[in-house]
């Protein structure tokens, strides 16, 4: 769901100041979608939708799993800040540029944290986090 990705990106780049994701990474250009054809430089953060499945009420909800990949020696601080931004949060749909066409409501919770790792190519620590986004689609006009 592209609109969920937009929500995630806008929330990340809006987090500025002391102790923020942008502050810990250096600047907002270090936050990228995982499918971009760019090799990240350390420190950086990538995110991508891992899956989007039917929710508990199949016709009325969807569950979207978003994975964050942190490439930084300061990954504990960045992981903590991402958790503060996305765990148990109801999202402001006004962040979707161009207006939300598909999403009627969205909230997210922490789902999974991967093991501590080391990225050999970037020569930096790596950490993966996954969050579950509960999406209520907008009602559609009947035909």
The helical percent reads 10-25%
Give a count of the beta strands, DSSP E runs of length 2 or more: 7
Share of residues in strands: 35-45%
* H/E element order: HHEEEHEEEE
Structural class: alpha+beta
Query: Rg, please?
Result: 16 Å
What number of domains?
Answer: 1
Q: What is the correct CATH architecture?
A: 2-Layer Sandwich
The coarse silhouette is: globular
Q: The biggest beta sheet, please? A: 7 strands, mixed
Distance between the termini: 23 Å
Write up this protein.
- The protein is α+β, with helices and mostly antiparallel strands.
- The protein has a single domain, classed as Alpha-Beta Plaits, CATH 3.30.70.
- It has helices spanning about 1-15, 20-25, 75-85, and strands at about 30-35, 45-55, 60-70, 90, 105-115, 115-120, 125-135.
- The mean pLDDT is about 90.
């Amino acid at each position: 769901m592209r609109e969920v990705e937009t929500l995630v990106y806008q929330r990340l780049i809006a987090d500025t100041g002391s102790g923020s994701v942008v502050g810990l990474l250096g600047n907002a250009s270090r936050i990228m979608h995982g499918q971009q054809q760019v090799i990240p430089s350390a420190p950086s953060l990538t995110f991508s939708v891992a899956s989007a499945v039917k929710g508990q009420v199949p016709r009325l909800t969807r569950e979207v799993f978003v994975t964050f990949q942190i490439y930084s020696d300061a990954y504990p601080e960045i992981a903590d800040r991402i958790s503060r931004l996305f765990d148990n949060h109801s999202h402001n749909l006004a962040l979707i540029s161009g207006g939300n066409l598909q999403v009627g409501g969205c909230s997210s919770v922490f789902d999974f944290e991967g093991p501590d790792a080391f990225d050999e190519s970037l020569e930096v620590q790596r950490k993966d986090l996954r969050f579950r986004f509960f999406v209520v689609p907008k009602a559609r006009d009947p035909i």
